[in-house]
Amino acid sequence: MSRARSVFVCDDDQWVLDTVVDILSSLKLDILTFAKGKLALDQIAKVSPDLIITDINMPEMTGLELLKFLDSNAFKIPVILLTGSLDPMNLREAVA
Fold first, then answer.
1. What is the mean pLDDT of the chain?
2. Which residues are CB-neighbours of 1 under 8 A, at least 6 positions away?
3. HSE-CB of 91 using CA atoms within 13 angstroms
4. Whole-number Å distance between alpha carbons of 30 and 39
5. What is 6-95's CATH superfamily?
């Protein structure tokens, strides 16, 4: 029997966390939520998620910082970045 796919959802806005979980809940995924990127980072090596969905703007560790950490440490985990901001610098930094 194969294991359920795991998804980390990181956002400091509880409404966004709840909404993303509601959307994904019918897909039979193991969904773990985190209010801070640092909390997700602490679990990545233990759980090895199949996908990370993260807000760009969070306190302590932004989604972009989390993305950079994954890249610099050779983690091959797909990341979806969410944001309510239209800052073009975030887009440039995310794709760099």
1. 87
2. none
3. 5
4. 17
5. Response regulator (3.40.50.2300)
